[in-house]
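Dear support,

Our group has been running a series of protein-ligand predictions, and this particular one with adenosine-5'-diphosphate is the one our PI (initials K.S.) wants archived with full inputs and outputs. We had some confusion internally about which version of the output was final, so please treat the block below as the authoritative record. The input we submitted was:
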Amino acid sequence: MKKYNTFYSVPYVLWLLLFVIAPLVLIVYQSFFNINGQLTLSNYREYFGSGTYLRMTFNSIWYAFIITAVTLLISYPTAYWLSQTRHKQLWLLLIILPTWINLLLKAYAFIGIFSQAGAANHFFEFIGIGPQQILFTKGSFILVAAYIEIPFMILPIFNAIDELNPSLVNASRDLGATNWQTFSKVIFPLTLDGVKAGVQAVFIPSLSLFMLTRLIGGNKVITLGTAIEEHFLVTQNWGMGSTIGVVLIVAMVVIMFATGERKKKGGQRR
Amino acid sequence: MKRKWFDWRNIYLWLVFLVLYAPIFYLIFYSFNAGTTMTRFSGFSWQHYAELFADTRMIEIVLDTLLIALLSSLIATIIGMLGALAIYGIKKVWLKNSILSLNNILMVSPDVIIGASFLIFFTFLGLRLGFSSVLLSHIAFSIPIVVLMVLPRLNEMNHSLIDAATDLGATNVQVLTRVIFPFITPGILTGFFMAFTYSLDDFAVTFFVTGNGFETLSVEIYARARQGISLEVNALSALMFLFSLLLIGGYYFIEQYNNSKKARRRNRMGAKLIK
Amino acid sequence: MANTIIKFSGVNKRYGDTMALKQIDFELEQGKFYTLLGPSGCGKTTILRILAGFTDASAGTIEFEGKKINDLPANKRKINTVFQDYALFPHLNVYDNVAFGLVLKKTAKKVIHEKVIEALRLVQLSGYEEREISEISGGQQQRVAIARAIVNEPEVLLLDEPLSALDAKLRTAMQVELRQLQQRLGITFVFVTHDQGEALAMSDEIFVMNAGEILQQGAPVDIYDEPINHFVADFIGESNIVKGRMLADYQVEILGHQFECADAGMRVNEPVEVVIRPEDLVLTTVDKAKLTVTVDTQVFRGDIYEIMSHDDAGNEWLIHSVRKTAVGQQVGIYFEPEDIHVMRFGESEEDFDARLESYEDDADEKV
Ligand SMILES: Nc1ncnc2c1ncn2[C@@H]1O[C@H](COP(=O)(O)OP(=O)(O)O)[C@@H](O)[C@H]1O
Ligand SMILES: [Mg+2]
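Confirmed final output from the archive:
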């Protein structure tokens, strides 16, 4: 096998060097240049010095947190009860199907639904609240983001619940636990890995959903992603954009460590 | 577990499904609107579909998108599969783990970071932004998912299968083609499939690295959505939904076919035994 | 030796700091059934892997029919393996698994068909050709693994604990079948097991191994009757092992008593260990006894009573008796001089063989 190993690795190692390591190095490198191409620390000074960027970062993390929490609250019961249905694999497929619809189409649908004369306002009129401004609010951004992320949260939790050995639940009942005790003392702790995977899959993208902030949030919400897009594609201040990118990468690494998936991935079984 | 139809747990599930599908059906519903808004349905018509099919620019974009998806997922599948084989062959645990961590960087990175850093990278190389930069990016972000789909199959494979094949006289190439490939094929297919959907679905990375008028569907939809409602987009989403259903159907058909082939073989066996 | 087919000279194998094999030397003759016997981790699989060519020896030479094969890759050796976990290809059915090696050799389809059908008939699996591997039982999978190996007509067949996954009944049946198969094919089998009963029942020759070394080699009866040391005696069967002293040739002292025995060729007053098998101990009355013990436990095993007892010095004695006794009772035990097996401390197999030969000649002269 040995001879062939080098042959296998060439394209893959090239990819690792060119598309994983080089871009990372370049974005860090770029973050030390200002808009006029001079080497400087001013981007970082501005980022940590001015309240604007820090506030934006904090807001972004706060939104991501809310989106994650809302998604988790909806997804856990869904995954749990889904795993008890008879044709669970079919239902799961139906949960996954919407993720195959382009994200932008779903966002676009909400532009219609949340618009002044849209379905949501029809409903509000019907129950007597009267039409509201829904689109271009923070709430609409959170709702749409949560809507988009729900399947990504359900999937890992469902898998964790599905892998759970049913005799553990029976054992717990057998030992006198109530349904709630069984859930809180056996099922939930054992499916925590699925929850962590779900949180990871939702939180990080939520920091960077710039298209939703543009289409649904109407610039009411500015996330790290929005700021990066703005600097790269609108104001062309790549240095500042990269600086924010570096901050986002650091945030990502922190999340990864906090949800602690790394150790387990390492020990590959043969 | 026995459960009545009107269990509140079922109601909850139905609600979740309703919420998940309502926006999609809302879109599709209005694609048949004779009017031009997504708020008032003024009668049934195919007019937006007619518009869509007459829109050569849109059709070109759809074809480009499919071309990018197909090419990038094919190339990513080949490289990713080779990568998985290479990683599988690594003996040193620390090296294996470091490479796996590197592999996963693009999986967990937010799209904007990937887009921005690729943009810097391509500009640094002096590459013209357009078809090739988009294709390269899609290949790049699809490779790790292929690796992650193939590697578990390899790890699942009993190592003595390789020994057994060698023992029976197989050369290295024969081991690869006759034992390893058949065993990891499901992983490779899933990887290809995932890469394909990743590419179709991507917006942010493409948005960063495209240029010179080259657009994929997502970028085009974004541009149109920013300008407001255009029911041609609704017609497009209806067709894309149909396309997804076809893909799923195809996937199921393949699964079913594989299973029934086995079943048929068994039946033949049974017939023989009776004789 | 006639027809040596395999020869290991000075083979050792190291994995990092651990020596999996230390200085292995042996010769295998064509057409015999060999068994490597030893506890888990003693290096049995390592020997097979070196023989098959999956692993390289760290030092030493491996010869096959007089030619060094250290650098010959596994796919070029006329040796096939039956793996412990069978290693059947899950994507192929029974027929295609068995045909695998022949297909690789580009054998004609018709010939393949004949050979596969014949191999499956040999392992009594005719009619299972089209089954998927997942559709047959463990015992049947095991037969497929054997058929897949023998269809290539190897000179040597290696079997790594092939019966360990089977239940007791199937296992005994397969032991007989494997032995018959070997005799029918007339090729060399190297069989690995950690079950001494299995080894004794099947082999022409046994290699008892421990910690990367071959401790003793011989026919089952010889190893059972003349274990070279404490480890072999203990591993090869249940035994009573006590300390003793050689007073003179054919005279040994155990527990303060002097007994006649069948061993000689040692120093006067040399400290030794003495093995007496439980089935050689006969219960008797205290006055006729060679030793007196007190019964601690008694378990009925169907064919015999297994009696644990202790003597006044605190040594435990295991007795297999067809007669029943009572717990707590003092009983006498009796044994013949040839039931006493004397073992010297640290004697190598060569010295052991030499000593045995010297005094056996003696004995012959006397007669
Ligand atoms: N690939 C390996 N790497 C490191 N040590 C090994 C390897 N294979 C076997 N060993 C060690 O070599 C010794 C002998 O192993 P093995 O031949 O498998 O024993 P057996 O088959 O008798 O149970 C054991 O101590 C085992 O831990
Ligand atoms: Mg072993």
